Amino acid sequence: MKKILILITVLMVSKIAAVAQSNELSTATQSAKLEMSNAIDVTFNSNGSAEGDIVNLVFENVNDFANGVESTPIELKVRSNKKFHVWAKAGSNRFSYSGPESTDPKMNVNNLKIKVVSNNTGGNVPNSVNNKYANMSKSNKKLINNGTAGGENTFAVQYKADPGYEFPSGTYSVDIIYTATQQ
Description:
By secondary structure, the chain is mainly beta. It has helices at residues 2-20, 62-67; strands at 40-44, 69-70, 74-80, 84-90, 96-98, 112-120, 134-135, 141-147, 150-161, 171-173, 176-182. The protein has a single domain (39-182), classed as Immunoglobulin-like. It contains two helices and eleven strands, in the order H-E-H-E-E-E-E-E-E-E-E-E-E. Strands 1, 2, 3, 6, 7 and 9 form a six-stranded antiparallel sheet that branches. It has a three-stranded antiparallel sheet with strand order 8-4-11, with no helix packed on it. A two-stranded antiparallel ribbon has the order 5-10.
């Protein structure tokens, strides 16, 4: 009986609270617009920057000169709100030279090769660079075709230098330029 009286009391208090609420209502509406432009960038995962760390390919012995020297894989990330392509090219036809020689040895950039060793972009890698080396040049070389829109698209490249024995000691440098373009 006591429980029934408590239940009736709770129900009456609830009804009084419900009746005490106002039936009047007021609303306001506002529209929100997003004005978005096309956006794309390509960065190096090692440092999160558009300027990668220097890749040092060191020739220490005759076997290195005979077989060439490979870099470790270098991972890049593309963020794009549309499908995209990625290209790579050398900044010059020749390496710049710093060393003991008084004349500048003319090493062509085709002594540097590139290949794509992993692809998580949703796109495809052209056969010419898909896990096989292709010579670098000052002309664009397509690395990724039809990458998908997203913020975590990654791929990795690897370099191989194979200049042979014809160049003197010193440091040979060239910039590699990566370009991501939207479709």
